[in-house]
Input
Amino acid sequence: MAFLDEKVDYLFIGKSGAILLGYPGTTQDVDVFPRRSPENGHRIVAALRKIGFEINSELEREIVAGKDFVQIKTGPFDVDLVFAPDGITSFVDAQARGLIEGIFRVANLRDIIASKRASGRQKDKIELPLLESFRVEFEKRSSHPLRSTAEIASKRRSKK
Amino acid sequence: MKQTDEQTEDAFREQCRRQMDRPLSLRIKYGFNRVYKPVLDDAPWRSFESMTAYREWCEANLPEYLGYKRAHD
Output
C-alpha cells in the first residue's frame, strides 16, 4: 500500500512475485525491481519508512543512486531492491507487460522465470522446473499468452 | 506406493490450481516466512555496484547449503 501511496514505479520479481500470482511455494524475502531514477529512489525511501523500515542517510544515498542490488533487513520483512535483475533487459519493457495482482504490480511470469534462469544459482536451478509447471497452469487462465522481455527483444531483432 | 514422475507433476499442477484459487491474502500469509540465515542476515543492509559484485560476494561469503552459489552442470 505504501508503494502505491508514494507512487513508486516498481514490479515484484523473483519467487515473491510468483507467490503473489499463486505459485505454491514459500520465500523469506521480497524482491522488488524498481525503476532506476533519483525521483523514484526518494519515493522508495519514503514508502519503506512508512512501512517501518529504518533507513539511515547512507542507505538512503545508495537507494537514490540506484545501486544494482540493495539488500535491506531493517524493517518488518526483508526486501531486496534489484535495480538490474539478471535476464530482464529494461524496466520499461517489463513494466509494460507486468501484471496487476490486487494492489501489487508483478512482473510477467516469463520475466520472473527468465531472471531466475539467468542468475544461475543453485537454489534457482532447483526451482525452475516447478516455476515452469506453474507457468503452464497460470497461462491457461490468462487472456493472452505471456512473453518475456528477452523473447520480445529477440523477435524485434529477427524482424530487422 | 511410489508416485511416478507424471503423477508427481499432476499433483503439483493441481496444487498450483488450488493456490491460484486462494485469495491474495492467503497466498501472502502462507507464502512468506522468515528464518534466520547465517551471514546473509548479519548486517542491517548491503549494497552492490553490480549484480556481478553481489554474486561474487555470495560465492565468497555464504554457506553452500543456502543455495546462493552458482550451479554447476
